[in-house]
Amino acid sequence: MNTPWAAVAAATAFVWLGMVLAISFLEAPLKFRAPGVTLRIGLGIGRLVFRALNRAETALAAVLVLAVAAGGLPAPVVVLTGLVVGLLLAQLGAVRPVLNRRSDRVLAGEDVPRSRTHLVYVACESAKVFLLLALGVAALSV
Questions:
Q1: What is the DSSP track for 14-67?
Q2: ∠ CA(127), CA(130), CA(131), 5° rounding?
Q3: Mean pLDDT of 112-122
Q4: Is residue 113 pLDDT above 70, yes or no?
């Protein structure tokens, strides 16, 4: 087993974890509390921020998969990597498009009802936090 690859996997998981915590659970809810930030402005900012986060997550997922594959890391690390990458792909392929369509409508001035899809996204982000934490710890124990 190649422990430098385990270190890369752990570092990648913890960097990714920090980004999700900072953006999804700190920046996103706080921006709507800032003076003068309307729903339309908050959505516009949020789309830019989450697009950047998702690009960074995709890059981190690629680094993680490479490190796990190259390092021949143990099954728990492989399984957790598969779960977190699969969750990201589900968010990008199924949840984000629905949220983007809704925010397009709001930004176009339409009055749309609240969406439960946002709660699905929050649930995915919460699961991702736990998976990334478990993955980082598992990779550190190699």
A1: HHHHHHHHHIIIIIHHHHTTSTT--HHHHHHHHHHHHHHHHHHHHHHHHHHHHH
A2: 85
A3: 92
A4: yes
pLDDT reported for residue 1: 53
Query: Would you say 106 and 112 are in contact if contact means Cβ atoms under 8 Å apart?
Result: yes
Cα Rg of the chain, angstroms: 17
Asked whether the predicted pLDDT for residue 98 surpasses 60, the reply is: yes
Contact in structure between 76 and 138 (CB atoms under 8 Å): yes
Tokens 């989450």 -> residue: 50
| Contact between residue 10 and residue 118 where contact means Cβ atoms under 8 Å apart | no
Of 1 and 68, the structure prediction assigns the larger pLDDT to 68
